[in-house]
Amino acid sequence: MKFLLVFDFDHTIVDENSDTWIVKCAPERKLPNGLRNSYQPGHWTEYMGRVFVYLGDNGVKEDEMKRTMTTIPFTAGMIDLLGFIGENKELFDCIIVSDSNTVFIDWILKAADFHKVFDEVFTNPAAFSSTGYLTVQHFHAHHCTKCPKNLCKRTVLKEFLDKQLERGVSYTQIIYIGDGGNDLCPVMFLKKNDIAMPRQGYTLEKRISQLAQSLSPVQCSVLVWSSAIDIMSYLKSLIKE
Length: 241
Known about the structure:
The active site is at 8 (nucleophile), 10 (proton donor). Helix content is 39%, strand content 16%.
């Protein structure tokens, strides 16, 4: 019996968007209008690249960014949930699939000592250049028309499961915990025995219920959560079974 927990990061593990939180480092804690309005749908990574150039041009250094990012609050109950998963790692494999970036997620998890809870993190690769500017790249190229061009979470999940099968690891159940529109694609990939856990009041929950209304519901079970304690209760009931 082994369960796979798949977490989104922004608005799921942390209660904010890590990419917009970094704006606290900008002069007057805001971006110029021209930069803010330069975002084009599906091209968030490119937009963040421009934000990082702006921060670098304004002398914002790595240590200041790190200090700011490690003040981002965790979602209600999440610290308890991650502690519980950490204590039961023999039952749970745990991965993050996120449209954030490696630097932010690494800083935040290490500062709270949760990096050991997660077996793998799939997100956009980021690094500081020799001139001290943060740079970010696309996670991968894919052919999914529903997802932003830098990341299809279904593709990531499918490739991870295929790799695990090659290692002889299969899962009793996949539990997908997320909130955003880009979490719908992997949720549609889940099977009858799996469970999607959308955050209450967020886009993923709305999209799943729209599908149910149009009589093309997702195959998996759906359990809505508002605090990570709801997720922990479900996991405890799994262990008892």
